[in-house]
Amino acid sequence: MKKILPVLILFVLVFTGIASAEAPYQINLKIDDGVNPYQTSVIVKTGDQVAIKLGETDVRLEIQEKQADGLNFKFDPALQVNDEKHGIVDVNYFLLPAGIENIYTEPGKTSPTLTISWTELTLPEQYDTLISDVSAVLNGEVIESDEFSMIFRMLAGTDYAKNAGFYVTDLDADGTPELLFGENQPQSTNTVFYNLYTIKDGELVHVFDGWDRSRYYLVNNGGIAHEGSSSAFESFTSLNYYTNGELKLMQSVIYNSNANPDNPWRISTTSEYEISDDDRMVDETEARYMLAQYPYIQVELEPFSR
Fold this sequence. Notes:
The protein is mostly beta strands. The chain folds into 2 domains: 5-120, Tumour Suppressor Smad4 (Sandwich), CATH 2.60.200; 125-303, no CATH class. It has helices spanning 5-8, 125-138, 151-155, 284-292; strands spanning 12-15, 25-32, 38-44, 49-54, 57-67, 70-83, 87-97, 102-105, 113-120, 164-169, 178-183, 192-200, 203-209, 214-218, 224-231, 234-243, 246-256, 265-268, 280-281, 302-303. Strands 1, 2, 3, 4, 5, 6, 7, 8 and 9 form a 9-stranded antiparallel β-sheet that branches. A hairpin with a 5-residue loop joins strand 2 and strand 3 (38-44).
């Protein structure tokens, strides 16, 4: 069993569904073969699905509605619960009481145990302050702060203010929730984000600050896309991954017709928008094909007015 654990959880992914406005939950997952325990946590809401690689089985845990002091889950495929009183019992649905841990094993195989527990997530005080400040700004109050995008000041007093909101998730699965500010615009299937925050050593870290021509999107492969433009002649779309309070560039599709009107498209792995001789020159078809490989996603934002 010593060598099986690195293969057991290849990744833990959260697939966001359409959820009602509510506080998120922190789902704690632990796999243990008695020698090499592996533990992680993810932040989810009702309607989300957590995909887990357990042995040779891909398990999907779907978050159902909260009932009293419990949280309802659905497993696909069905797992077996190891109940001390009744032995092995097949389950598709079950109610997990708050603070109680239930142990699941893969049916028909000798494998480590999967332990699942959950708690309602308590946001850091710094996050509550930021949320309250943006809510006040959208309601027309004057707040002296540069910790959030100017976009929210522009939205104040308009019909579009109701589209703004925040989203809490754990982007790098390190147990620390990240906070994003953004909006779901009418007729758009993507959520645009302007701010990302995290907490490091108890301090607030402002990871990025966007505006109308500097927008961020969550990508369905777990990445973060950044669209920027300085004019009709210069723009870029970069794909990044988030870790430890920073965005790390994977690649950027750059359009710069000022530098080369005949061949304006380039692929860079060193800069989001600055071109260099190391960039790979591509035509528009290849550039747009590459961008299409990273579709953006839409999430349901929590409204700032709670």
